[in-house]
Here is the input.
Amino acid sequence: MSRNKLYTAIEAVGLVVSLAFVIIIGSYVWQQYSITRESPDRENIYIFGTPNTTGLTYAFPDELLARVPEVEAAVRYCQCYTTVAQMGDDYVKVNAVAVEKDFFMMFPHLGRFVEGGLEDLDVPTNVIVNEMFARKHDLKSGQTIRIDGEDYIIAGIIKEFESTIFKNNDLIVNVRHPANRFATKSPYDGYGTTITFAKIAKGTDPQVIYDKVNKVCKEIYPIYGHVGFFERLEMIRFDQLFFNEHNGLEFNHGDLKTLKLLALVGLLLLLSAVFNYINLSFALTGKRAKEMATRRLLGAQKGEIVWKYVAESLVFTTVCFGLGLLLAYLLTPSVNALLNNPDVPIRVRMSPTYILAYLTGILVVGVLNGIIPALFASRVQPIDVVKGTFRRNTKMVFNKVFIVVQGIFAVSLIAMSFVMEAQYNTSLHRPMYCNTQDKYYVIVSDRQSQPELFDKLEKLPCVKRIGRSVGAPGFVWGMQYGWMGERNFTYWHLQMDTTAFQMLGFEVLKDYKAPLYNSMWFGERAFAALGFSDDDHVFNIPTTSGKDESGQAAGVIRDFPANCSNMGEETNIVISILKEEEVPLPGYLMEIVGDHSEAAKVITKVVGDWCDEQQMFYYANGFIDDFYRDALKPAKNNMRLLEIFMLLAVLISLLGLIAMSTYYAGEDAKGIAVRKVFGGTVKSETWRTVREYMLLVAVACVIGVPIAVWAAQRYLEGFIVRLEHYGWIFFVAVLISLAMAFLSVLWQTLRAARMNPAEALKKE
Here is the structure.
């Protein structure tokens, strides 16, 4: 290593950086999947819902236990909500969840009590407080806390949930408390409000359970119109819930797409670094041929030669792994900032399990790095070294193969990075079909109109005009299920006054001149789904909310993006125009003049002060355009992560090319000198050598581009508005790959070509 400092540095840099990211990604994958295995009964615990939700209703667990004998236990987990709690004279925004004592019996690893115990949940008016929340507000057992107008007694303090699908909530209340309206007034309504965890008997066929539970649901849930709201059961096993795409706000969730992307790219990055090590070690075998021949002449066996190479590799890999572990620890906060699920951050740990995994990784990578050069070196015959035939017979086929493979990685990642960047810009600038510029939206957690707050906002200098709206582009509120005749459909229902409607400037396709108020505008998709036409657009839509919508369609608007993330599927849109006083929730849509950041500060302060006075809270606070940008963050983060890996992979590949060009230049010094003596020039010798490398990179591009095209098509499938006409990206990726390869080998090639022939021949 000391005699080949450039090669050693290149091997070390590539291996340290790649191992650092492999450690980060490995920790991420391990910690994500460990959550799916948190319960020993994970394969026998299921939850039940509809295709778009993870829950049903409050009464469902009782029906389940009574009608399905294979169910051994069923517990409720419901009402994850945000509210305001009064503690003495202070009002605090809190997150609460409602469970029953049996929940902790099904998941005993969660019940780590600092004070109190499970028996305290038997009393409906008792509440369990999160340890961090209790410490922050200096709460003790026995104190009274007021939530939603009801007094509760703090009966216990529980430790933070760790490495679990269940989120940490400030308060845990009894699901049977009288204030739980789904427990007393409408136990068969409120779909999705109650999540049921059911433990079935071991060995039971899941299909049998599914059929029985599906039948129970169709019998117990009421009929609306000619069909029941419940149409099909969704049954999810506990260890599959974490990565389920319909995992709602009640749980921590994992991003399986990001996980697979990181795992794949991390593996490619490690392979690229390993290829560099093998490639350079393989090339240096020629330089070490005399050493190996001498050892063989002194009696060394082939096994000893192999072990020497592998032992060197293990020592080198161990040192690099230590440096990589330190680098991984330093980089983890930055990587966490780019992940799509901050609920489960990466932690680089030093527990016995992780140390064992690290040692295994060192062993695998070390042996993999050293075994191929070792096997080749062990085949060296001393007589070939003495006669010089070993050097002449070394064709470096392996080196060329590894260069091509690294080139495939590089061109594929370059192309995919450009595709993701272009798709992100496509999503960010997709047609809105309404005017969202300078529009600010905020909604307050109250069921009554707040005219005083409306007046305060209206008088702000930055507010040009203000309207009331339940939902807005970028924050669609209130998914509804309805039907007309034989047509059933779900739709996003926005309710707003005329000011808000005019402010948003929807693109009107058809105007049927309906009455101004209590009329409904239909998006194109919803209009078609209901079978309307220009001659027939009178509607009577019964809904599961109990309020039938009826009247004449006001007109048709072009569908604006209700799906802010631009991924998945778009939905039907319906907008009701109401009088100001009839808009059911205090949501305020404002048109802003002046500086956006200053306006946001002023509005947030006014709304925040108001909510503090009224013991409320607010959400959806911001500019509509920012809502859309925030929804695109997962795609943006994936793009940034891939770009980081692309740069690293390209860097490792280029370092490998530089090292190999240095090696080949040294090995071919005599040939270059002889050709120059017989009329060769610096230009001809440079081009002859560079051409060989360019051919290798060209082969890599021919293989890598189809791979990148396939990957790009798969990636773009998930978007609603997709990138089109992107073939130029692959052409640019090829040009960049060829240009980088050319520049990386040109330096050493020129240096060798410019060498004085006499000096080169004298060395020989």
Observations:
- The chain has a mean pLDDT of 81.
